Structures are given as structure tokens and as C-alpha cells.
Amino acid sequence: MHTESLVSRARTVCQNNGARFTSIREKVFRLLAKIDGGIGAYELLEQLKQTEPAAKPATVYRALEFLTEQGFIHKIESSNAFLLCHHFDEHHPAQLLVCDKCGNVHELHSDVLQQEFDQQAQALGFTISHQTIEAHGICNKCSSEE
């Protein structure tokens, strides 16, 4: 999806949520929009420094925290990386397929998986506050190159 369209949608979500989409937050969002897979905070910092030379790690971490709170990004827990969600303006369950070879990440939205997960947690009296479901393997592109 085109970056400008994503930014426009993000602005609308922020406006509806009463949240400030500051220039730094938007710049980090734009950097994430240009990446197919996940990226780490320090890699983002290096890219951000090209336009914001005074940027520090805290700058990026605050922006990532905001983007996560707004539902704009997913954290890939196993690699401590971040991935832009292209479906952030609609509430949805997300599961991530992570290629261990190229690092590409594909986002799935399975309501069935989510319902089963929620039902089992509820049966145990467990309240889920945050959830990331990841599956690691080799993507189609990498497996066809072997």
C-alpha cells in the first residue's frame, strides 16, 4: 500500500483517538512503511538520523511505544523487531509468519485461531493483556531458491 495513504489513515486514527501524530512519530512510521519485514529499533535510529541527526535511542523507543499503542505496528517478540501493520484501522487478531532465512514477515488474521486461544485462556481463568503469536520457518521464496 502507498505510504501517503497509510500516513493519511494513521493521522485519521490519531485524530479519532485524540492522540498526537508528531513529526518524529510520523517519520518513524514512514520508515516502517518502507520495510517489508521487521526492523530493530537501532536500525530505525540510524535511518532516522539521516533527517534527525540529534535523534537518540529514547526518541525511537518513545515513537515505537506510541505506534504500538495506536495499533500501527506489531512487535516481533522473538527478534525484538517491529513491523508496520497495514490493517491498523480495523481491529483484528494477528499472527506472524517469520522467515528464518530472509527475515520476511507475513501477517495473518485468523479469527478461528484467536477464538480458540481466547477460549482456552478463559477456561484457565487467564486474562490476556498482550499477545503475539509467531511461527518461524522458511518462506516460499527462500524454499524455492534451495
Automatic annotation (TrEMBL):
Keywords from the UniProt entry: Cytoplasm, DNA-binding, Iron, Metal-binding, Repressor, Transcription, Transcription regulation, Zinc
Cofactor or coenzyme needed: Zn(2+); Mn(2+); Fe(2+)
One term of GO molecular function: zinc ion binding
Primary location recorded for the protein, binned into one broad class: cytoplasm
Any single biological process term in GO: negative regulation of DNA-templated transcription
GO cellular component: cytosol
Localization, UniProt: Cytoplasm
Cofactor notes: Binds 1 zinc ion per subunit. Binds 1 Mn(2+) or Fe(2+) ion per subunit.
Alphabetical list of Gene3D superfamilies matching this protein: 3.30.1490.190, Winged helix-like DNA-binding domain superfamily/Winged helix DNA-binding domain
One Pfam family per UniProt: FUR
Domain of life: Bacteria
Binding positions for Zn(2+) per the UniProt entry: 99, 102, 139, 142
Binding residue positions for Fe cation: 91
Matching PANTHER family: ZINC UPTAKE REGULATION PROTEIN (PTHR33202:SF6)
Family per similarity comment: Belongs to the Fur family.
NCBIfam families attached to this UniProt entry: PRK11639.1
Oligomeric and partner information: Homodimer.
Protein name per its UniProtKB record: Ferric uptake regulation protein
Organism: Rheinheimera salexigens
Gene transcribed to yield this protein: fur
